[in-house]
């Protein structure tokens, strides 16, 4: 690992550190319309509508 | 006997008991039933043996409201009527279509499906149909239904020889009944137009209007106006409750396995809601036509899904490579809510060559129907998820709540209502036997008597009702 880091330029390393958390931070999914009111938002079987797709919440992984 | 002109018919000195106006599926079927019962019947057909622009011009009209087809292209005015261009898709209205629905005003027929079922064997012979298989429930909400693609019987071609040889049936071509005259109890005569001029009046014991789902209303509206209410004494509903089957591409589906549903010869399968689902969602009946999609459409659909649900798209890609094809287009046709405001009126400014006012059709889709479209597709999508059969994507214009597109199928060319069947004279024109309320000798055949449209193509039900009316008249008319 240390060998790999040594081979990278400092600029590249910093960019990678910035970019990694940003990937998940800025990967914003479109808002889902909950089809079944009253279901728990965390329910993987919840039916949601996203970009016109009728999906299960677990499909959005 | 078939006569090419009214003059030739008159020379034959035929004495009919019954006069049928129109030689389409309803008119021809009723004539054959009466002829077989030994009752002399004349069929007056406004057109000739073949299509002509001149005859078709009588069907021009105008529409007000939602976009609709030109009225002279959505039907045909020659022997055999609109059977000359129908696609041959067959299904009888569902049992639930005849029942009143608490969430949709003015639904429910005065007859049940069981009243026409005894005639289905005859219908199968006439339309050359195999037996229907029962609906298959794929969930509590959705049925996999059958729509038979029949050979599309052209009634003139199939029955011309039989009609020509019959001694009890006279088909008179190029003879247009412009109006009926009546005294509030009986139709006394029909005014005829033949060979480009008035051809006098014509009498028979009974008259049956079978001129089509638009023209029946026009004929009776004009006749009633000319007879000061003497043809349809209770005319509050005349021309009203007109219906179509709006039809649009509603979305796409990616399927886990094509083999789940047996598609027909053109790779299509059909789905409709259960009555329980319609009640719960308070929607009308609908039919989803699933068409297996060619290869390029599948790739773009999976690419679109990848933006939203990458893992699902990956799984679909895997399925795709396994099955070569695994996607479908979804077209939706649905039942219109019967509305008095959807109506046929007589133009105040435009008349045909015989001086009869042309049709002004007022037609608009309702909010209930929009909900039927959207909820229907969502219901189908949810069912595919619950049964692990695939996923559905709505068309953008539906998902975004935009207006209906005007460059699509629009509707099925199915003209229903206008002289609907019922017991309430304020909301119907004919009774359960298709007899005009208050009139002793005037009946109506064809889809203009439909109280509701269901989602099925109408010709099968039209033919069944015509067999039933023919049987009824065979008992009523004395020879």
Considering the protein shown, what is the CATH homologous superfamily of chain B?
Answer: FAD/NAD(P)-binding domain
**Most extensive chain-chain interface:** A-B, 15 and 23 residues
The N- and C-terminal alpha carbons of chain A lie at a distance of 30 Å
Beta-strand content bin of chain B: 15-25%
- How many domains in all of chain A? 1
Instruction: Briefly note the structural class of the backbone of chain A.
Output: alpha+beta
What pattern of helices and strands is seen along the backbone of chain A?
HHEEE
Helical percent range of chain A? 25-40%
Number of domains of chain B: 1
Largest sheet geometry of chain A: 3 strands, antiparallel
- Overall shape of chain B: it is elongated
**Hey, roughly how much beta strand do the residues of chain A contain?**
15-25%
Q: What are the segments of chain A in which pLDDT stays under 50 over at least 5 consecutive residues? A: 1-5, 18-29
Number of strands of chain B: 24
Compute the average pLDDT of chain A.
63
Radius of gyration of chain B, whole Å: 23 Å
Query: What about the largest sheet of chain B?
Result: 8 strands, antiparallel
Contiguous runs where pLDDT drops below 50 for at least 5 residues of chain B: none
Strand order of the largest sheet of chain A: 1-2-3
Describe the fold and architecture.
The complex is a heterodimer of chains A (61) and B (479). Chain A contains 2 helices and 3 strands. By secondary structure, chain A is of the alpha+beta class. Chain A has one domain (2-60). The two termini of chain A are 30 Å apart. Chain B starts with a strand and ends with a helix. Chain B is an alpha/beta fold. Chain B has helices at residues 6-12, 25-36, 53-56, 120-127, 155-165, 215-226, 275-281, 295-308, 310-323, 367-386, 396-399, 459-476; strands at 2-3, 18-21, 41-44, 61-65, 89-90, 136-137, 142-145, 148-149, 169-172, 175-182, 187-194, 197-202, 206-209, 240-243, 246-255, 268-273, 286-292, 327-334, 343-351, 357-363, 390-394, 410-411, 416-418, 442-444. In chain B, β2, α2 and β3 form a beta-alpha-beta unit.
